[in-house]
Specification:
Length: 100
């Protein structure tokens, strides 16, 4: 599975505007199978649950809030490439200019 860090790097979406890329990614995400959706949701939980654990520990150690903030900031950087790579196989290649 190849990881794509932005939607612009997905070959099927190159040359499309931002709105078109996001619409195609949303359609591809709707085509994910149940196990793929479950894996994606578990991955989301693996990132979100430590944030709450660090917030609970903030009464003992205020530095835990810094770690919670880092996890929140890392959320899109860790999740989006995984999500893009799962959705990439459901994208249809965009027609080349003059091929419609």
């Amino acid at each position: 599975m190849k990881f794509y860090f932005t939607a612009r790097h997905i070959p099927q979406l190159q040359g499309l505007s931002l709105n078109e890329r996001m619409a195609k990614l949303k359609d591809a995400e709707n085509k994910l199978t149940a196990p793929e959706k479950m894996i994606l949701n578990i991955f989301k939980l693996l990132i979100i649950v430590p944030v709450f654990a660090f917030i609970l520990r903030s009464s003992e150690n205020w530095f835990a809030l810094v770690w919670a903030g880092l996890f929140i900031l890392a959320y899109p950087f860790l999740l989006k490439p995984f999500q893009y790579s799962l959705c990439a196989k459901y994208l249809v290649a965009a027609p080349k200019q003059g091929e419609e």
